[in-house]
TrEMBL record:
Pfam families: Peptidase_M8. The keyword Nucleus does not apply. One of its GO terms (cellular component) is membrane. GO terms for molecular function: metal ion binding; metalloendopeptidase activity. Residues 1-20 form the signal peptide. Its cofactor is Zn(2+). This is Peptidase. It comes from the Bacteria. The chain crosses the membrane at residues 244-265. One of its GO terms (biological process) is proteolysis. SUPFAM superfamilies: Metalloproteases ('zincins'), catalytic domain. It comes from Alteromonas profundi. Keywords: Hydrolase, Membrane, Metal-binding, Metalloprotease, Protease, Signal, Transmembrane, Transmembrane helix, Zinc.
Length: 283
């Protein structure tokens, strides 16, 4: 039985594929986190899962984060630590090193203080970004003699982030001719080389400061520049305006679809058809 035109089109569209894996985050509490604080952790998970919607490689990742609020040294001392503790990659053709496990620890006394001033959620959101890879997986060497073998978007000490996706958004917002995004070089270990520069993305030039600088602000937000930087690390990302970055499709599928559709339409209507060939940027 001859298939109708609409069914052929649907079948061809369904042949389009995307080399993408699913992405999720699971917070594993050791029991020291109270219900209100754990709810904020879950809110942070929901935020990042709404923005990071997949991986650019074929396998999925469920990032496991061990979270706890032990006593460290009391309020206003060491807040805690957050880092990626295990990573994963495709050992054959992998281009990216992904965080697969991480740790988030906050001093219980500082948690109480941050709750009172209303910034605890921002701190959790910020530190979870580091566990995912912001500032921690910008140039991973992974036992390769000190030479980055995966994503390489930043040279330590340079103050210049060069990842293509984030840089393109930075150019849209600030300077079309910019060659890099300024990275913080002050603040010592834990701040320098792992955050956007406070002078450019902090209070000075923006009405609302960026959350991923090295300094906490009460009215901070996560910019599209930060979201796009995760596409540089191998994730598929949804920006605030709905644009999707990091999708890796099969260009040949579009070409085959266009050719087949042309043949079908030409045969169906038996007349000459002029084809306008469009150029697509596959993000």
């Amino acid at each position: 039985m001859r298939k109708p035109l609409w069914l052929l089109i649907i079948l061809m569209l369904s042949s389009q594929y995307t080399n993408a894996g699913a992405y999720s985050i699971t917070v594993q509490s050791d029991g020291s986190i109270d219900a209100d604080t754990l709810s904020l952790f879950n809110d942070a998970v929901n935020f990042w899962e709404s923005k990071i919607i997949g991986t650019q490689e074929y396998f999925g990742i469920d990032l496991k984060i061990d979270a706890s609020t032990p006593f460290i040294d009391g309020a206003n001392g060491v807040l805690g630590s957050a880092y990626t503790s295990e990573q994963t990659f495709d050992s054959v053709i992998g281009q990216f090193l992904y965080s697969s496990k991480g740790v988030m620890r906050f001093d219980i006394d500082d948690v109480a203080r941050l709750k009172l001033d209303g910034t605890l959620f921002d701190v959790i959101l910020h530190e979870m970004a580091h566990v995912i890879g912001f500032g921690t997986l910008w140039n991973p060497t992974f036992n390769n003699g000190g030479t980055p073998q995966f994503q390489n978007v930043y040279i330590n000490g340079s103050g210049q982030y060069t990842g293509a996706y984030a840089l393109a958004i930075y150019q849209e917002i600030f300077n079309p001719s910019a060659t890099h995004i300024p990275v913080e070089l002050d603040g010592g270990s834990g701040t320098a080389n792992a955050h956007w520069d406070e002078g450019f993305l902090g209070n000075i030039f923006l009405a609302e400061p960026e959350l991923l600088t090295g300094y906490l602000h009460s009215n901070a937000y996560i910019s599209d520049i930060t979201l796009a930087s995760f596409a540089d690390l191998g994730y598929i990302v949804r920006l605030s305006d709905g644009r999707i970055l990091g999708i890796v499709s099969s260009p040949s599928t579009f070409a085959l679809f266009g050719l087949a559709l042309f043949i079908i339409i030409g045969r169906r209507f038996k007349r000459d058809v002029k084809i306008n060939v469009l150029s697509y940027n596959v993000l």
